[in-house]
Structure formats: structure tokens, C-alpha cells
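Entry 12.
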Amino acid sequence: MSKPIRFLVVGGALTLIAFLAALFLLPKPQGTGLTAGSDVPFYSMPWGDNPFAPGNLKTADGKMLDAKNIPTAEFCAQCHQKEYREWISSIHSVTGPDILYETAISNNELAHKNRLGTEKIRWCDSCHEPVNLLMGEINPLAVVGPSEATAEGTTCIVCHTAVQADPLAGNGGLTLDINNLNNYTEALIMAAPSEHAVSMQAKTHNPLMGSSDFCGACHTEIRPVEINGGEPMHLQNTYEEWKKSEYAEKNIQCQDCHIHPDPAAYISQLNESGQVPERIVSHRFVGVNYLLTDSNLPSNLVTYLRGGLPPGGIATDEWKADLLEQNRLIRDLLQAAATLSVSAPESVAPNSKATLDVTIANTGAGHNLPTGALDQRHMWLEVKVTDAAGNVIYHSGAFDAKTGKIDPNAVIYIKVLKDKNGDVINEHILFNAESYTYTRDPIPANSSDTIPYAFSAPANAQTPLTVETTLWYRLALQEFVTYSLKLDVIIPPVMMEQTSVEIQVK
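Predicted 3D structure (C-alpha cells):
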């Protein structure tokens, strides 16, 4: 190698070393957080100096977010394509754009239009639209504009900058160090990938990422008195349900099941062996929202419900295939959650009464069954008795596929919200709720509920009688779709479990 060439090579290497030294040895840039008032003018703060109240989401420096300084999920996808493709089919990717959510918050905002309705939405957006909240977009005056990251729901950077969780506070009880990102540009990531891994908090660097405390911050919903009422109203307690279960005692975290590539397979392996399977990470975050993942719905309905096509240039056909896989995993998970058993007599005399007990056992969920927003999510039992000729002798819990209505006498597990006048709230207007009752208490993890039934066997019934019992799950009430979304669509239920027994007539 000639001297000039050696000089260029050595000189280039020294220049690169000097550049990297400057990057990592010079003082880090100061935080990019903004101050309400001076940096974000005309920002309404009716509850003191916390710009994110009445929600519980916080930033480590207490400042608001300058959204132009954070990476979008599309940016992360340049290197993390697999994780991005998993996430983009999840519900986390549309926690904000989701039309069901957008409609619900509009209803709540209108219900309190003259009572700080817009500011109260910050309570909801602490979990559903954290970037919008942190940057100050939830304000009566449009003082900041949308950014690319605000269209991404619970985007990558929200979870990967969490440094503290308060799961019993509810509604975004997380502290994010999101205003101190220094290692996410292409050049810095390539120069120091290990530092990038540390700053983006893989579980090995931040145990919080693998803890149920982290999930509990949003899967606990407590309405504060700033919204309504004289006392906080507990509306969702999934974290506490888990905390009281044997799963918590065995150190089985939410992530073990819900970020597994196949949660139903995880449950099966756990139940069969009694040993906790190895944690395998997927960013699908499989839950129960089968509606927003069913790309077989007519007229591109799923695209509308999810707030449009996904960012990132994914081919529509590929995206819809990803959604269908997510939908399959959700349905499998629902069907792994419970078992049914029926205790019935071997025979019944004609014209006499037969009694039977149906037991629902929560054998697959590490929390109550059902759980979540239980004024909408519900499950119920259908019991149908037919004779050998196909005549229906008894039927409870029928579902009308033309109207979306459930037999009013069905055994149903749902939370009934009521307003100050005692009227039932069917459209998820949580701001107006004054009280609630359960039609039947949810079933804790590893517990069961037994429901008695009775019917009469006609004299002309052809033996044997078949008792078919089905446990159904549905994501939302039909009234919400009909009157809030204004859609002529019936929400179909999902069959969780089904069993049958025979009774002789003699």
C-alpha cells in the first residue's frame, strides 16, 4: 500500500474515531421537554400545575413532549421489521385511531361539554393516545398540531421509555423518560447498537418491561373525582385481579401469556405440565378484540374501525393476512380461557321436572373472567334442550343474529352502569356513571361459578334429550354500535366453550 493511500485510510479511521468520541464523550444534549404556557401557549390546566391531569401518565422531567423529537414506529421498523409487523396487527397500534374509542370519547366529551369535557379526555388518553396527551393536543384550543407518531396509538417509544409504574393508580400510571432520547438516529444506532439497546430498555436492562406492574398501569381504570362523583370509581381492575391470583404467587406475569406468540398454546402447556413455560416474546399483544382484527368483515369494515390503513407501506393483502392471524390467536385464547361441565340426571320421567347444574371454570385466565371494560365486554350462557326428533324443549340465552339481542333472561356476566337518574348507560359514557352493579360476578382465576337450570320433559318427548351448553363472549353491546357508531352491523359473538350431555326419558 502506497504512503498516500495509507495516509488516507489512517486519516479516515482517526476522523471516525474522533467523531465517535465527540458523540459519546461530549456532554449529552439537554432534555427536549416543553413547558406549558411558555412553550405551549393557551394550554388549559384546570387541575393545578400537572399538564397531564386528570390522567396519571407522567414524564420524568415533568415537561410536555416535543413530538418532532421522538421516533415513529415506522422509523423503528427500518431495523425491527418483524416486531413492527406484529405490532401493526395488534390493538396497541390503534388504541387512538380505533373508531370505537374515538366515538366513545366524543360521546363523553359532549356529555360534559360545558364542564371541562375536553380536558377530562386526558384521563382516557393517558392510555389510549399517550403521545397526543404528552404533546398537548388534548386541549380546547388547537395549540399544537398532530404528528406522525400521534396516529400510531401506543407506539414503540411509549413503552420503551417507561422507567416507573404505579399500577394501582390506573389510567396510565407510568413515568416516561421520553424527553431525554439521545440515541435513536440512524448514525448513533449504527455506531453504538449496545447503547441503543440500553436506552430503548430491553427487559435485560429494565426489569419493569417484563413485570405485570408495567401492564397494570393501563389495565387498571379508576375514574377520579375531577371527572365526576365524590369518590374515585373503579371501572377496571385487571391488574388487581391478577395480583390476587395464584398466577401472581407463581410469578407468572401478564407478559408470559399475552406477549407469547401463541397464548393459547402457552396456557395449554402450563395446565398440562404445571410448569411455567419459557417466555417467548411477540409484539402482537394478543387480547380479546376479535372485531378489530377480523379482516373478513364485509366492505373493508375492519379498515374503517381501525381508523384506516396502517402506515409503513405494508401491502394491504399482507396486512389483512396478519390481522387474520391475530384474529385466530385471539379466538384461540378466548377458547382456552374456560371449561364447561354439566351435572344432569341420567333419566327423567315424562311430564316431570329435570334439574341440572352448569359450571363455568376459569381455567385459563390469570385474572377474572370476563375482565376489562365490563360495561361493554360480556359473556353469557346458552342452554338448549332438544329431543331426539329435534324438537326444542327448553332454550335459555339465545342470540338473535338479526338484531344483535340476547335473550333477556340469559345468565350474563356484565357490569351495568347507571347515571344520576338511574337510567342504564349502554354507550360507554363513563363520565356520567353514578353507580354500577354486576348481573353476575366475574369468575376469578382458577375459580368457578355454578348456575342451576330446570325444565319439564313433555310426555311425547322422544328419548334421549340432548342438553347443549355454550359459553359465548362478545366485545361490545349492540346499542353502542347502533346508536353511537351509527352502523347497520351486528356484532357477532365468539364461542368460548361448548359441551353436551344426554338424558333418557323413561
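Annotation: The CA atoms of residues 74 and 199 lie 18 Å apart. Residues 22-336 form one domain.
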